């Protein structure tokens, strides 16, 4: 099958990252197809079921490279295509997908094979809109799913599911060097001269949008060393923080990998990403500021593609499984926070401290919701957009 125009690579950390979307040349594709038409006939027939708008040459070369399960798997009765944001890869691949397929076989007698692709959330949403036939999406924030719905591919109210379509949460947090040598304790420290800061790019990363919304809102709420409810002071704080950014990576996973390579003093990231790094053997400490934003992680069925593939039943089963105790406990083991109160109340995984609830924990709805936040911060005239462009232009 054909996947979004990307394939995972393995960094020295042992954790995967996904490069920017490659660009193919149709003329090169035509020459390639002409040269090996006979051997590709079977492949192209299979690819025809997946109308992904990438050049034929790329489809042939990449094939299922972005999938984590290959052609040598045993025959299956059902197939499901999952498009997820990169930071959820480990828990999905190592625990949730294997547990779901075993559970589905036990309940229905049918084997299901999940083809999974991982990209930065915004890039994944664009791939689905462009034609990547994902039956289910699990992305970093609601606006990315809403964009797929606006394109006419999701036709039901995906927020009508339990917890508004959210299957896990995490917090905006800071990764710092072991022992916290720079004494980073909260948002004011990110604006200190000389601090080297990492964060992903809001143009491609859902995590970056959560990060920027958290730091700006913390300033407005009086937790960033500037006066509360002062728009000018919050804008000045944002400018000071962005001047300290040394690398604006394309995704949350890429940003934390850069930090793990030794770049920067602090990375603004998901709490769950810091835990995932420790599980991979990389040492960093976690700082949760006194005021921070809860990150809600949603999943949805893509109606247009499930109807095309006849996979609605198994897609519904997968989304339901994400809410089960089995899946919720797996999410907690990988640093996420459970949406199930009973699971959330259980003791933490071995080696991890109990989850900290900061004094001023707020949600996106508390700051006006995503439509307002996107416009005021990330639109063409948004504060983050204007501030970053001004800093970049001055360098």
TrEMBL record:
Q: Which UniProt keywords apply?
A: Periplasm, Signal, Transport
Q: Which GO terms describe its molecular function?
A: molecular carrier activity
Q: Which GO terms describe its biological process?
A: sulfate transmembrane transport
Under Gene3D superfamilies, the record lists: Periplasmic binding protein-like II
- The signal peptide annotation in the UniProt record is none
| Protein's cellular compartments | Periplasm
In Swiss-Prot or TrEMBL terms, this protein is called Sulfate and thiosulfate binding protein CysP
Q: Where do the segments described as Disordered lie?
A: 1-24
Primary location recorded for the protein, binned into one broad class: periplasm
Q: Which InterPro entries match?
A: Thiosulph/SO4-bd
One cellular component term (GO) for this entry is: periplasmic space
Family, according to the entry, reads as follows: Belongs to the prokaryotic sulfate-binding protein family.
């Amino acid at each position: 099958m054909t996947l979004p125009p990307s394939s995972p690579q393995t960094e020295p950390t042992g954790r995967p990252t996904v490069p920017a979307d490659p660009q193919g040349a149709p003329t090169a594709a035509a020459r390639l197809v002409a040269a090996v038409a006979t051997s590709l006939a079977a492949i192209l027939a299979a690819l025809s079921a997946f109308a992904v708008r990438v050049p034929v040459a790329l489809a042939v070369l990449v094939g299922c490279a972005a999938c984590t399960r290959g052609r040598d798997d045993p025959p299956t009765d059902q197939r499901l295509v999952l498009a997820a944001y990169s930071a959820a890869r480990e828990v999905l691949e190592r625990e949730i997908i294997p547990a779901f397929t075993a559970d589905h076989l036990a309940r229905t007698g049918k084997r299901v094979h999940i083809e999974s692709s991982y990209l930065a959330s915004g890039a994944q949403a664009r791939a689905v809109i462009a034609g990547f036939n994902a039956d289910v999406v699990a992305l970093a924030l609601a606006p990315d799913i809403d964009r797929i719905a606006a394109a006419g591919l999701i036709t039901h109210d995906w927020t009508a599911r339990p917890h508004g379509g959210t299957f896990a949460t995490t917090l905006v947090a800071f990764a710092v060097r072991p022992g916290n040598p720079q004494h980073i304790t909260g948002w004011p420290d990110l604006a200190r001269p000389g601090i080297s800061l990492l964060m992903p790019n809001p143009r491609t990363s859902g995590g970056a949008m959560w990060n920027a919304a958290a730091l700006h809102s913390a300033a407005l709420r009086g937790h960033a060393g500037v006066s509360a409810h002062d728009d000018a002071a919050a804008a000045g704080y944002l400018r000071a923080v962005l001047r300290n950014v040394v690398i604006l990576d394309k995704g949350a996973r890429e940003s934390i990998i850069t930090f793990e390579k030794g770049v920067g003093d602090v990375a603004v990231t998901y709490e769950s990403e810091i835990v995932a790094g420790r599980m991979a053997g990389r040492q960093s400490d976690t700082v949760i500021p006194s005021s921070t934003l809860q990150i809600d992680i949603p999943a949805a069925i893509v109606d247009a593609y499930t109807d095309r593939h006849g996979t609605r039943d198994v897609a519904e089963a997968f989304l339901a499984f994400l809410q089960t105790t089995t899946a919720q406990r797996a999410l907690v083991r990988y640093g996420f926070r459970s949406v199930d109160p009973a699971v959330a109340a259980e003791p933490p995984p071995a080696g991890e401290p109990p989850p900290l609830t900061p004094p001023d924990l707020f949600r996106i709805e508390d700051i006006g919701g995503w439509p307002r936040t996107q416009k005021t911060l990330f639109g063409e005239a948004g504060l983050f957009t204007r501030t970053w462009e001004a800093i970049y232009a001055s360098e």
